[in-house]
Write a structure and sequence with these properties.
Helices cover 32% and strands 20% of the residues. The N terminus is likely disordered.
Length: 691
């Protein structure tokens, strides 16, 4: 077959991707030849298997057990143990001291850690607690164990603290005796020493002093603001318990003790005035409860504001859950059901408005403290609660309490309903808002747009599909929840030199802009992206010369008139295959079909099958003339399925914005024929194509 110089449309694509700064970030031209170095395979035998014992797993992979940005979490593990004693009713004071030498000590007046010999392990219990993973006193909950409700669960926390510290000193005051034990790098440095309690010694409690090992953390310094907030919240959640922070370097001492509980804490933290008075309450299951253990429940304080940043904090057994979880979902569900019930009872919902949970929750600030018998957290750092029953637990106490409160304070209930309805109207308006055609009336979504059901732009995708036939297959093969299809008829207008005011004169471009929900803008503008309807805008065209030309025209449109979409990473190029190979059954392997992006991938696939005993002549090779030849199933398998598709993000390549602009001007400008000819003469021999 004869070979000729590159046709102009192909050259445009090749030049835009390779010689301008605009290119798919994963695009790499295939080398003509590649020499693969021969690598020796490492031996894999019985000796390759290593068993980590003691605290070695923590030292090898500290990020699995704690936060490694700073040592705060390993100190929090010790603090949580002190808080568990207070939660169990055996302590009233917690004291944290930041020593001048960089160590941190945590003191409590609880029962003290037992230091006698363990009946099975024949080692001091206090030593097991700090040197053995999964050794602790918080497993037998609800069975008469030492703890009913606790943040400690797995017997892992303080073992991690010990493993990641250069030194740790533990002193336990218990039953008229004082036990002291010193560790270094997780190992016992000074064996257990037990002596009678001295005159100045405390009656009971535990003192743990930790020297964090800077080797395991990005920064050895404790974030003082986070520590202060943590200690303050502990005091809030445990009314009557005093929490003290002493800084030896600055000689500062802070003590927190709250009697007002969650209400006062939330009031002090809010950045705006509540629309209605705070809603607070608590509830706990009694001994005869059908679904929950005695004592399980929640306490909460909720405030609704019209502006300002919402304050949202949640805790489980005094452990802060910064990532939320199922207990927050329970609060969300309880609030929504109660408010919706009030609105329905008083017929306050306008026609056409549908209330959603986020409408009630959007302006809610809250502090939530849940007590769960056996909480299931996501990971050792316990940032998120995963216990399924916690949704029903919290909701079952919040919903009836709020329903009663709203019906006792109808005026406040109507104000809250008004706030929720306003949020619902704004949400619906945002989901439906589109730009108008110049000179027309009210704008509506393009009729040929097949929209998706979701309104979450983090998951939504819109495919700009070449041709009505391919658009039909894409509509049938797509994921209706998250994928929208906008078929394009013919080639899009070259918009490089089109004035922005005249841009909407072209129907295709008008429809693209309306569907996206963003106005055309320049590189130095600050467009409003809040109405963006899709997180991914994907160019899907044929894998031939005409398809490449359409890609170039659309990339030109986005780069010239929607540059912030490219900058924010919203524009993508889909790469459909050019070939399909049908392979017959090979022994136990069933028949298969394989898609190849280009000639190189086709040859690689055929070589692979040849090694497996399937000669080339037995493989049936089909070449797609265009997307319209693919049925819905094929289009899903090759281009739409997020798991296996090839979707390349578009970003600036080797040149900056101005250099990219100059190169594309040479390629797309009407008066740049000489520049284009020079470019084709320089690079026209780089690739050979079939004609």
């Amino acid at each position: 077959m004869p070979r000729v110089a590159l046709p102009a449309p192909w050259m445009l694509r090749y030049s835009v991707f390779m010689y301008s700064g605009l290119m798919p970030s994963a695009y790499n031209p295939r080398p003509m030849e590649r020499a693969e170095p021969v690598k020796s395979t490492p031996a894999y035998s019985e000796q390759s298997i290593r068993v980590l014992k003691g605290l070695e797993p923590v030292k090898q992979r500290p990020g699995m057990y704690t936060r490694t940005d700073n040592p705060l979490h390993i100190i929090q593990e010790v603090l949580d143990n002190a808080a568990d004693e207070a939660l169990a009713g055996f302590g009233k004071k917690i004291r944290v001291t930041l020593h001048a030498d960089g160590s941190v000590s945590v003191e409590d007046d609880g029962r003290g850690i037992p230091f006698g010999l363990h009946p099975e392990e024949k080692a001091p219990v206090i030593e097991l607690v700090f040197t053995r993973l999964h050794a602790g006193g918080k497993f037998d909950k609800g069975k008469g164990g030492a703890y009913s409700f606790s943040g400690g669960l797995h017997g892992v926390g303080v073992s991690v603290t010990n493993a990641l510290s250069t030194r740790m000193e533990v002193t336990s005051y218990r039953e008229g005796q004082v036990a002291r034990l010193v560790f270094a790098g997780g190992d016992v440095a000074e064996p257990l020493a037990v002596a009678p309690k001295g005159e100045g010694d405390r009656k009971q409690g535990t003192v743990v002093r930790v020297w964090p090992d800077a080797h395991y953390f990005e920064s050895p310094l404790l974030p003082l603001n986070e520590l202060t907030h943590l200690l303050r919240s502990k005091a809030v959640l445990m009314p009557g318990v005093s929490v003290t922070l002493v800084n030896e370097k600055t000689k500062d001492t802070q003590t927190w003790q709250f009697k007002g509980g969650l209400r006062d804490y939330l009031q002090q933290t809010l950045t705006a005035e509540p629309v209605i008075p705070q809603f607070e309450g608590e509830g706990a299951a009694d001994a005869g409860h059908d679904n929950f253990a005695e004592g399980e429940g929640a306490a909460w304080a909720v405030a609704f504001t019209e502006d300002g940043s919402p304050v949202r904090e949640s805790y489980v057994n005094l452990i802060p859950t910064s990532a939320g979880g199922t207990h927050e979902s329970g609060l969300r569900d309880g609030l929504f059901q109660a408010v919706k019930g009030f609105i329905d009872l008083h017929a306050l919902l306008p026609k056409g408005v549908k209330l959603m949970p986020e409408d009630v929750f959007a302006r809610a600030s809250y502090v939530l403290s849940a007590k769960v018998l056996d909480p299931q957290f996501q990971g050792q750092i316990k940032e998120r609660l995963n216990s399924r029953d916690a949704v029903r637990l919290v909701s079952s106490f919040v919903k009836p309490a709020l329903e009663l409160w709203l019906n006792q304070h109808v005026d406040y209930g109507k104000k809250l309903a008004e706030l929720a309805i306003k949020a619902a109207q704004s949400r619906q308006k945002a989901g439906q808002k589109v730009e108008k055609r110049k000179g027309s009336g009210v704008a509506v979504l393009p009729g040929k747009l097949t929209d998706c059901e979701s309104r979450d732009i983090a998951h939504n995708e819109m495919f700009l599909v070449e041709g009505d036939s391919a658009g039909g297959s894409a509509k049938m093969g797509r994921d209706k929840e998250t994928q929208a299809i906008l078929p394009l008829r013919g080639k899009v207008l070259n918009t490089w030199e089109v004035d922005r005011d005249r841009l909407f004169a072209n129907t295709e471009i008008h429809d693209i802009s309306v569907a996206i929900g963003v106005d055309p803008h320049g590189p130095h503008d600050s467009p409003d992206l809040t109405n963006l309807r899709y997180g991914k805008i994907c160019i899907l065209s044929d894998a031939d010369v005409d398809g490449s030309h359409i890609q170039v025209l659309l990339l030109t449109l986005f780069f010239r008139h929607f540059p912030k979409l490219i900058e924010a990473g919203h524009v993508y190029v889909a790469r459909p295959p050019l070939f399909r190979v049908d392979v017959p059954a090979r022994g136990k392997k069933p028949a298969a079909k394989v898609y190849a992006l280009d000639e190189g991938e086709l040859q690689a696939a055929l070589d692979k099958f040849a090694k497996e005993g399937v000669p080339r002549e037995k493989c049936q090779i089909s070449r797609f003339k265009g997307l319209g030849e693919m049925n819905a199933e094929q289009l899903w398998d090759t281009t739409l399925n997020p798991d296996i598709r090839r979707l390349l993000p578009v970003a600036l390549g080797p040149f900056d914005f101005s250099a990219t602009e100059n190169h594309i001007a040479k390629l797309m400008g009407k008066g740049e024929a000489a520049a284009r000819r020079e470019l084709m003469e320089l690079h026209g021999d780089a690739v050979e194509v079939d004609v």
